[in-house]
Inverse folding.
């Protein structure tokens, strides 16, 4: 049976730091299951759209439209 805790921490020298309040629950030889979730990359200060313009997603077969094609009805 698994019991556990959830916490956020920082790595140091490739090691996961367990907060002081949980250390007594993780003594030597304690069997644990580890799932690591990395924080998402922060969006630049210039905003999400500026970030997308600098790093566009390439889609095969997609082409840019000319101005007259955009407004053609």
């Amino acid at each position: 049976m698994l019991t556990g805790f959830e916490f956020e921490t920082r790595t140091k020298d490739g090691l996961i730091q367990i907060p002081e309040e949980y250390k007594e629950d993780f003594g030597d030889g304690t069997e644990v299951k580890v799932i690591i979730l990395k924080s998402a990359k922060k969006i630049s200060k210039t905003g999400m759209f500026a970030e997308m313009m600098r790093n566009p997603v390439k889609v095969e077969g997609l082409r840019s439209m000319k101005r007259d094609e955009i407004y053609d009805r």
About this structure: The beta strands are 11-12, 15-16. The two ends are 64 Å apart (CA to CA).
